[in-house]
């Protein structure tokens, strides 16, 4: 189970036997940003990953937000780097404003787009 508000959960959910391991997921460190870049672009140089991460504040962005950025530009690492400042724009809302075509593209299901058009 996951939650953003552990303090609001019924204590019965957190008792031993129900939730034995509790892990706090923090925002991305520089090492995590570099690692995620290299996971999406394994052939890239570490300098590319550093160029990306150096544009962003440490411990301010979630791994999920970073992943969404990588999925959006997954075909072009230069676009990932060039558009890194998009991640700092609080007006960019995310998947709720995403078209079906964009969602299918990000999830690598573009072949299904024609079925949605019908």
Fold blueprint:
Elements: H1 11-14, H2 30-40, H3 46-53, H4 63-72, H5 77-82, H6 100-106, H7 113-117
Helix pairs in contact: 2-3, 2-4
Helical content band: 40-55%
SSE string, helices as H and strands as E: HHHHHHH
The shape, in one word, is: extended
Name the poorly predicted regions.
none
Percent of sequence in beta strands: under 5%
- Cα distance, first to last residue? 37 Å
Calculate the mean pLDDT score and round it: 90
Largest sheet: none
Taking all Cα atoms into account, the compactness measure Rg is 18 Å
Number of DSSP strand runs: 0
Number of domains: 1
Structure in words:
- This protein is mostly helical and 118 residues long.
- The protein has one domain.
- The chain has seven helices and no strands.
- Helix 2 (30-40) packs parallel to helix 4 (63-72).
- The radius of gyration is 18 Å and the shape is extended.
Summed up, what is this model?
The chain is mostly helical. It is 43% helix and 0% strand. The radius of gyration is 18 Å and the shape is extended.
């Amino acid at each position: 189970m996951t939650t953003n508000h552990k303090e609001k959960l019924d204590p019965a959910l957190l008792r031993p036997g129900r939730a034995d391991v509790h892990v706090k997921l923090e925002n991305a460190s520089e090492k995590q940003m570099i690692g995620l870049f290299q996971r999406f672009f394994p052939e890239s140089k570490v300098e590319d990953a550093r160029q990306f991460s150096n544009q962003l504040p440490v411990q301010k962005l979630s791994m999920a937000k970073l992943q969404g950025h990588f999925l959006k530009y997954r075909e072009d690492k230069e676009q990932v780097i060039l558009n890194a400042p998009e991640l700092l724009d609080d007006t960019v809302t995310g998947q709720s404003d995403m078209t079906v075509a964009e969602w299918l593209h990000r999830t690598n299901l573009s072949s299904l787009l024609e079925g949605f058009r019908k």
